[in-house]
Each structure stands twice: as C-alpha cells, then as structure tokens.
C-alpha cells in the first residue's frame, strides 16, 4: 500500500493546485518545451508514469467508497477514474508498440534469411564477421577511421596531393535560419546545432585544397519577422584561420550559402510543414546546379560542365531533396541524419502520452521516416557522429541491417556477386571544431591575476565574477556541467553525487550552466521541474557556497567558462543518460579540461581518441562521485588527461574532418550525366531547316536506339511484314531490334536527302529533333486511367483546349503514363493520332523515355519511336536486376486468396509488359493485395532498392529503379534538353497511381481534372503512411482544378488563369 500512499499524496497535491487536469488532458499531458510551468501536469505525469495500473484502480475504488457530499471528494473520485483510464491507455499503447517491434524483428530475420539464401555462395568467415577483428560492421577500426597525425607536415603532404583537383560539392540544409555570421542559434527549435554545423562544414570544405567551390543550399526567407539577411539569394562564407590551406582563389571559387525560394515567400515555415514544398526546392536547386556547372565549366573545365562530385543532404527533408537531385543529375549522394525520425517515434511511443496517429499529426513523423528511408536507398555514404547512432538508431530502419551490411561488405571485398543487393556505407566522422582562436593557459588563478608593468594582467571576463559570487572559496577546483535542465541530461544525479560525497564537497565546487532564464514560472514544464529539483537538492545537502547556477550567460561567454574551470584545475562532466555525440566534451578538451562522461553514446568514441578522462555509468551515483574525486585529487592523473586532450584534439579539427570527408567522397564511384550535349545546338534552335536537326543528332552522338519492347501489336501492319508472327518472343525481340538498327543506319544515310526538303510539317519530328526545344510551353498529360478509351478522351480535350497554339508549334505535348510503348502505339492508332503529335513519351511509370521518330516516307519498317538509352544509364543506379525479379516472383507467389480448400493467386508476373528496367505484375483483386508501403518495406529489408508503384487503378504493379519516376523523367528532360520546368504544365486526375504525389509539386504548373481517377484514392491511397494533404501543396497558385466533367473550354480557361494561354 506504500505505492497508494504516494498516489494519494499526488492526488491531494493536484486538488490543492486547482482545476488544472482539463488543461493537462487537452495537451495530451505533454510537458512541452513551451508555456508556463504547471504543477498539475507535473503531478499527473508522476502518477501515470510512476505507478502500476492496479494501484491507480485501487485508489479510484477507495475514492468512490469514501465519497461524501463535499465537492472535493467528488472531484477526487472523478480525477482518479480519469487518471486510471489514462494509465490504461498508456499501457495499451505500450503493448501495441511491443507487438509491432516484435513483428518488425521477425520480418527482418525472415528478410535476412531470404537474402542470404538468394546469394548462392556459402558464407565465409569474413561474411560472418569477427567480434575481435571487425570492431565495426560499418567501417574500419578506430585507428583506420581516425589515424593519428603526428605533425602538421603530414597534413601539408596530403594537401599538396589534392591541389590539382577542382571539386564542386553541394550541401543541403533546408529548415531553420541559416547565415554565415551572427547565427541566431536557439531562436527556435529549427535553428540549432545543425545550422552551426553545416555552415562551418561548408566554410571548412571551401578552404580545403582540391575543393574549388562549395554551395550550401537552403531556403530563402523574406518574412517580416526575420532579419533581411535571410532573404539574400547568395552569401559568401569568409574563411576563418585557414590561410594555410587556401588555394589560389578563382572567379567563382569558395564557399557560399545559396538561398532557393520555395514555399510561401513572406512566411517562415517550421520544418514539419515544409514537406509539400520539397519538390519546388528540388526544381529550383536543380536549376542553380546546372547553371553553376556551366559557369564552372567555362572557368576551369575547358567548356565542359563541372558537375558536383557529391550532393550531401542534412536531416530528413534535405535527404529527400538530395535523393531527387542525385537521381536527376546522376551524381553520388551523401547523407547525415542529425536526428532520426524512427528514434524519435520510439521515444515518444515509450512515453505513452500520444498514440502513433497523434504523433504523426503533430510531427509529420511518417513522412520524415519515409524521407530517411529514401535517403538510405539513394546514398553512397551515410555519415554519422558515433557508433551508437549506427547500432541503436539506424538499425531501426527497414533499409539498413548491420548484419546483412557486414555480409554484403565482405562479398564486395572479395568481388563476389551480391545479386542486386546494396547497402549504404556507414562512416563515422565526428563533427569538426574551430580551434585556432583557443589558447589554453597554464597556471592557476593567482598566477593569472598577477602582472607587471610591462604586461599588466587583463581584466577577468564578467562571467567569472557572475559564477564566483556563488562560492565561499572560489579557488577550489571547479566541476563544470554545461547542459539545459532536461531530465535526459541527468543533472539531478550529479548534484546528488556531489552532495553525498563529503570528500568531493570539501575539495571542489560545482558549477551548473543550465541555459538562460528570467523566472522559473516562465520556463517550460520539464525544465522548470528539473531546476526546482536541483534547488531542493542544494538545500537538502546544504550546498550553499559550493554550487553555482547563474541565470544568464551569452554564447560568447562559454569559452571563458571553460577557461575558468581549467584555471582552477577542475573537471568537465557530461552525465547524460545517452549522449548522441558530445560536442561539449571536445570543447572542454580544447581548453585543457579533463572529462568525466557517460559511457552511453558518442563519448565512448571521443574518449577512445582523446584518452583524457574517465567514463561513468550515468545511473550509478557512486561511480560519478568516485570518478570526479579521482580526477580532482590525483594531480598527476589530471595533468596527464589534460595533456592527452590537448595533444590529440586536432583529430576533431575541421581540416581533419574535411580530409576524412573528402577521402570518403573519393571512394565513391564517380557518376555524372552520361550524355554529351552541345550548348551550341541549343543556341541554334531557331533554325527552321529540317536537316539541322539531323546534323544535331550526329554532332552530339545521341546514342539512341530504336526499338519496341517486343510485344506484337495488331495495328502495326508494317511490323508484321518485318517479323514472322509465329516466332517465339525471344527471337521476335532479337529480329525486331536488328530491323530497327538497320532502319537507324538507313536514317543516317538519308540525312542529305531529308535535309534538301524545302518545307516540312512543323508538327513532325523531321522539322526539329527533339521538337520541344522550340516550344514555349510543354503540356505533360499524366492522367492515370485504367482504360485506353478514357485516356484518349482526356487527350483530345487537352489538344482541343490548345488547338491554335498546337497548330502554330508553340506548344508541345508529352504523354506520361504507366503503359508500355506498344500499348501507346495501339492507343495512337485507336484515336487516330500520330506519334509526332507528341514530343516525347514517358512510359512504364517513368522507366522509359521515347521520342517520335523521323517521318521518312521510305522507311520500310514504319517504326515511329526512338528510345533514349542515355536515360537508362541515368536511372540504373542500384537496380537489382535478376536478384530483384527473383524476390518479386517469390513474393507474388505468396499472395493468395484462400477460399475454402482452393487458393487463387492474386499477383502474377506479366512477362509481356516487363522490360529491362520495369518488372510488371498483374493484380487480380487490388483490395486483397498488401499496400505499396508493405512491398516497399519488404524490398528494403532485403537490401533491394527499387520504386514500387501500383498503377491503372491497382490492376497492375510496376517495380522500377529507385530513382526513376514520371516526375524524375521530367527533370531528366530538363537536364538533357534544357526544357525549362516552369514552362511545363502537368495534367493529372483528382488522384492516380501511387506515384501521383510526385507529379503535383514543383515549379511546373498543374491542372487537376476533378472526377478523373477519383476512385484511386480509396483503392490505392487508403493505406498510405501519411495523407496526401501533408505532402501536396494544394494551396499553391501553380495548381488549379477543373470541375468534374469539364470540357475543352474549361481546360482552356484554367490555362489562361495560369498565364499559359491568352484569353
């Protein structure tokens, strides 16, 4: 019953506070980092988290039994019942989460077994890993990861080897307020340590030998509530203390902050609400990178574009953006998570205060997690700060399994086939620091106060007196802790350890720098409760005159605080329960302070390198006190730890960080756009000679091959004359390809004859190739329908809406669908359309791009399409090929509908519609197959990277390369041919295939045809991880809706509204 006595005491305290339980309930009992301190919330939190459900039920029974006529008794009974139910809900949520985690573990084990079985070679000892020899599954040993450098000469040698390189690096960090000077760290939750890190990383990289230019891309904010500097498009980052490594500056060299406008121009948007605007940023960033690549090419590339050597995304939103940019440009991607969504979700669910749905509504956590999974799919390298981040956080993700990663890495080292499986390389690179301004001082406080006439002592920093006023004897060694008053930081345990260890109290003082405050009542609930607990402990142990806890300090005071602790021969302590990295430990070491730190997380890696202190169990009060006393009392140990820290601290400097960083980039397989495009070709686009276009094809080595996908088409009579209809599918494809190649050779031989033609139809590709180079606007028809008849009706409406402009050639058309090229060929014949009515065809859900062929009268085969094979090389990154197909076929066989004793297979392979980069499957009953998120999860667990799409109302399933999509195909056309994305107009239905959301965002304009494909929302989008409304900017002025059953005139009116057509 002791537990019930505590409960009763807490309940009485709640009643004494007043009617605050409603307030607590309305905020889901979250002790949030905002608002005034609420005692009611504090006591309710203590009851719910600290006591068993049975104790709470017993208290309610007792309250009901003793209920009297007094209002207080009634309130007590009601409160007991409500809190009991809250506790039951918490327990229920915890149980559901435990079941979910158990299911996830089983899925991962099954996926790992299947992946291992698919990789036919027997596992060797290297693949199994070795606990002693393979210290990390994700990198080399510590010495290999951060080699000790004995002198600056070694760095100079490395620098001299890099000078010949001219690298262009792109960093992305979207949220928060970013500028190079006077950073407003702590202004809000989005403007914190990540902002400082990315700015300093960009600045340091820009100063490294071999790096010509670094662009840090972020959001341009012109809101009235923020400083005008955040609205400046470009800001150069001036190097600090790096003259030793500076190359000769070029015209556009150095590091820059580039601010891309996206989202509301006059509004500061928090990171949870940025998701709908990510595609707009990607398009703007793509434009900047392409233009900058051309500029750098003119300066240092001999006229050839200098593409980024890597694109590095920071945090989930930037990771999502970097993946899309990496795919559009075909360049390597790096990713740093900083803070991970799955880890945050796990922590919030463990607290039991909110359900998964409530968490998602508040933090858009599922969209964030999907962005991080996509970053894992796309990244060559994932940079982490500590091993703990890999082993305890990244392993929560479907796309990363440390055990499977070790097996794949072993196979790669031995040059053994991985059967289409890929895992990003996890690399530990601790954040760098600026040390050039830090000068550690020797001597004690008395020695510094003294001076002489020639060199008078400088006055003490003001923060020193602010701290020392707390102490009876300010010259005793100072134990320094610098952390906000958060329960996770474990400051209360530190105070208890100090208070209960008499030798430590007699020998040292304790300084707690816990942020800034005016009044405790104005602090957030958690911070206020921790601070109150600390003050009570100071009173309990009578620590007055021995503990300092100043109310205010500035960021510029922090180095002086470290220096004061070092002058007193003190110690720095970080007793947090878990510390992801521990930047303050490095700062303290740089000022000559030995450290005592938690053994959980990043401090382990820091201590291994610096060897400048002791590690402790943060839950063990005695361990904390013993470690502090040992360091303070043993002067030789203190001096040795201080010297070790100062000797090895350069390993955490920015030059060292950047050296390791650049080495990892160099290990990535170089990738860049494979085609060779001449800018002079684009400049000549005003010419009307049909022969010019054919000469362009020869000049730029277009590397196009003409073919159909092998499916025999009833409407292609000329094709039947080329191939024998009775031959099998394999021979038919082979002969078709040969016929097409023969026709291609004939086309090039007849260039002169076609070029002599006096006049050609402007709508044929003979006039221009590719014709959309001359268009003022390009209409992209991306309406998703399961019948060709409905699709034809909508195509005709769009054609009629722009009939005049179509005839003049100012508007071109692209058909973007999930259909194969042969199905499109049939569609054109059925609708009486020509291939040359379109400038391009995006097929198989974005895995193929075709152009209409030249309309040669003597073409014997009559094949009207040409495939862009450069696009294939652009999207084949991490394509699983046969290994992926084998897994998909096995999965399809497992999807059955059991009806009594009979079983009906729901998903079957569609070999006729499958191509090299698109595996197609037929779906019998879409309602009975798993949602797309489940299949995507299954593929990721087995390290297969792909893009899974349900299309045509769920009747078909397409699996294509991970960075291929219809939206990405449009970006490719911009990169390949210079089609300006703002000049594109995408026509889409009210809903569509599962890749629908990618079509709506961006700088292009969008016309939504209401009522078209609306049933797909219930069939394909009902089981989404996050709602469409969270990620699609329906309030964007570039998106207009046309009423259901619209006519061509209604579509024209919408185009006039968008400014595309004139009224």
From TrEMBL:
Domain of life of the source: Eukaryota
Amino acid composition bias (Basic and acidic residues), ranges on this chain: 103-116, 680-694
GO biological process terms on file: sucrose biosynthetic process
EC number: 2.4.1.14
Principal EC category: transferase
Glycosyl transferase family domain residues: 473-646
Protein role: Plays a role in photosynthetic sucrose synthesis by catalyzing the rate-limiting step of sucrose biosynthesis from UDP-glucose and fructose- 6-phosphate. Involved in the regulation of carbon partitioning in the leaves of plants. May regulate the synthesis of sucrose and therefore play a major role as a limiting factor in the export of photoassimilates out of the leaf. Plays a role for sucrose availability that is essential for plant growth and fiber elongation.
PANTHER family: SUCROSE-PHOSPHATE SYNTHASE 1, SUCROSE-PHOSPHATE SYNTHASE 3-RELATED
Protein name: Sucrose-phosphate synthase
Taxonomic lineage from the root: Eukaryota, Viridiplantae, Streptophyta, Embryophyta, Tracheophyta
């Amino acid at each position: 019953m002791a537990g019930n006595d505590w409960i009763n005491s807490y309940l009485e305290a709640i009643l004494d506070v007043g009617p605050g339980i409603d307030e607590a309930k309305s905020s889901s009992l979250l002790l949030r980092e905002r608002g005034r301190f609420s005692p009611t919330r504090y006591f309710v939190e203590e009851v719910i988290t600290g006591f068993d459900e049975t104790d709470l039920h017993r208290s309610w029974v007792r309250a009901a039994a003793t209920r009297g006529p007094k209002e207080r008794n009634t309130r007590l009974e009601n409160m007991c019942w409500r809190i009991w139910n809250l506790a039951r809900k918490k327990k229920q949520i915890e149980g559901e989460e435990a079941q979910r985690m158990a299911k996830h573990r089983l899925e991962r084990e099954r996926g790992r077994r299947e992946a291992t079985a698919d990789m036919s070679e027997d596992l060797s000892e290297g693949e199994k890993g070795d606990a002693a020899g393979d210290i990390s599954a994700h990198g080399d040993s510590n010495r290999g990861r951060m080699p000790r450098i004995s002198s600056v000469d070694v760095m100079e040698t490395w620098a001299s080897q890099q000078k010949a390189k001219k690298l262009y690096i792109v960093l992305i960090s979207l949220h928060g307020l970013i500028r190079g000077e006077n950073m407003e760290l702590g202004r809000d939750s989005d403007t914190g340590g990540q902002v400082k890190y990315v700015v300093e990383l960009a600045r340091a990289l820009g100063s490294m030998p071999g790096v010509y230019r670094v662009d840090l891309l972020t959001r341009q904010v012109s809101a009235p509530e923020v400083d005008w500097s955040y609205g400046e498009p470009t800001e150069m980052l001036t190097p600090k203390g790096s003259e030793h490594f500076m190359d000769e500056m070029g015209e556009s060299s150095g590091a820059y902050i580039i601010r891309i406008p996206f989202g509301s121009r006059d509004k500061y948007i928090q990171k949870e609400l940025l998701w709908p605007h990510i595609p707009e940023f990607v398009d703007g960033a793509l434009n900047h990178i392409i233009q900058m690549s051309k500029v750098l090419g003119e300066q240092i590339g001999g006229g050839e574009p200098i593409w980024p050597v890597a694109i590095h995304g920071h945090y989930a939103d930037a990771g999502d953006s970097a993946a899309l940019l990496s795919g559009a440009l075909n360049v390597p991607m790096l990713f740093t998570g900083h803070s991970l969504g799955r880890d945050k979700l796990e922590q919030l669910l463990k607290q039991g205060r909110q359900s998964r749905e409530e968490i998602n509504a508040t933090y858009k956590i599922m969209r964030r997690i999907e962005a991080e999974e996509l970053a894992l799919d796309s990244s060559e390298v994932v940079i982490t700060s500590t091993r703990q981040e890999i082993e305890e956080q990244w392993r929560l993700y479907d796309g990363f399994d440390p055990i499977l990663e070790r097996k794949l890495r072993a196979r790669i080292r031995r040059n053994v086939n991985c059967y289409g499986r890929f895992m990003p390389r996890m690399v530990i690179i601790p954040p760098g620091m600026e040390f050039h301004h830090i000068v550690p001082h020797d001597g004690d406080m008395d020695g510094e106060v003294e001076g002489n006439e020639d060199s008078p002592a400088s006055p003490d920093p003001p923060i020193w007196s602010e701290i020392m006023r707390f102490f009876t004897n300010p010259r005793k060694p100072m134990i320094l802790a610098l952390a906000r008053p958060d329960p996770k930081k474990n400051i209360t345990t530190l105070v208890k350890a100090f208070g209960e260890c008499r030798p430590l109290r007699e020998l040292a003082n304790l300084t707690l720098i816990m942020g800034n405050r005016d009044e405790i009542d104005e602090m957030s609930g958690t911070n206020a409760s921790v601070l109150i607990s600390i003050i009570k402990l100071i009173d309990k142990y009578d620590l007055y005159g021995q503990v300092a806890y100043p109310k205010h300090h500035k960021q510029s005071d922090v180095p002086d605080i470290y220096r004061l602790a070092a002058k007193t021969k003190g110690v720095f302590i970080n007793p947090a329960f878990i510390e992801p990295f521990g930047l303050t430990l490095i700062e303290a070491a740089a000022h000559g302070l030995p450290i005592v730190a938690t053994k959980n997380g990043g401090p382990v890696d820091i201590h291994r390198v610096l060897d400048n202190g002791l590690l402790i169990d943060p839950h063990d009060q005695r361990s904390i006190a013993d470690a502090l006393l040992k360091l303070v009392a043993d002067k030789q140990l203190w001096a040795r730890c201080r010297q070790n820290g100062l000797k090895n601290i350069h390993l955490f400097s920015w030059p060292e960080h950047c050296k390791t960083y650049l080495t990892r980039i160099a290990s990535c397989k170089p990738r860049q756009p494979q085609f060779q495009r001449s800018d002079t070709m684009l400049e000549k686009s005003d010419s009307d000679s049909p022969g010019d276009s054919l000469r362009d094809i020869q000049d730029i080595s277009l590397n196009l091959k003409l073919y159909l996908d092998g499916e025999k088409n009833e409407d292609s009579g000329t094709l039947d004359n080329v191939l024998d209809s009775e031959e099998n599918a394999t021979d038919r494809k082979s002969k078709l390809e040969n016929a097409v190649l023969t026709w291609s050779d004939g086309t090039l031989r007849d260039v002169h004859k076609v070029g002599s033609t006096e006049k050609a139809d402007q709508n044929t590709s003979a006039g221009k190739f590719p014709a959309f180079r001359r268009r003022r606007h390009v209409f992209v028809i991306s309406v998703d329908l399961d019948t060709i008849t409905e699709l034809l009706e909508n195509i005709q409406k769009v054609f009629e809406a722009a009939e005049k402009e179509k005839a003049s050639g100012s508007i071109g058309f692209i058909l973007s669908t999930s259909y194969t090229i042969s199905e499109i060929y049939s569609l054109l014949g059925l609708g009486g359309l020509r291939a040359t009515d379109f400038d391009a065809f995006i097929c198989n859900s974005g895995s193929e791009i075709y152009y209409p062929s030249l309309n040669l009268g003597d073409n014997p085969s009559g094949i009207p399409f040409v495939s862009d094979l450069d696009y294939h090389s652009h999207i084949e990154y991490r394509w699983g090929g046969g290994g992926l197909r084998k897994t998909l076929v096995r999965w399809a066989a497992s999807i059955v509908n059991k009806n009594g004793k009979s079983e009906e297979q729901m998903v079957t392979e569609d070999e006729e519609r499958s191509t090299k980069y698109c595996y197609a499957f037929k779906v019998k009953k879409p309602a009975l197959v798993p949602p797309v998120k489940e299949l995507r999860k299954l593929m990721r667990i087995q390290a297969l990277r792909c893009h899974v799409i349900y299309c045509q109302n769920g009747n078909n399933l397409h699996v294509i390369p991970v960075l291929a999509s219809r939206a990405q195909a449009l970006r490719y056309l911009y990169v390949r041919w210079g089609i300006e994305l703002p000049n594109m107009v995408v026509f889409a239905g009210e809903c569509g295939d599962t890749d629908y959301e990618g079509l709506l965002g961006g700088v292009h304009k969008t016309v939504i045809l209401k009522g078209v494909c609306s049933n797909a929302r219930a069939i394909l989008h009902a089981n989404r991880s996050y709602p469409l409304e969270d990620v699609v900017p329906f309030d964007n002025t570039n998106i207009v809706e046309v009423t259901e059953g619209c006519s061509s005139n209604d579509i024209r009116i919408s185009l006039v509204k968008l400014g595309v057509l004139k009224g």
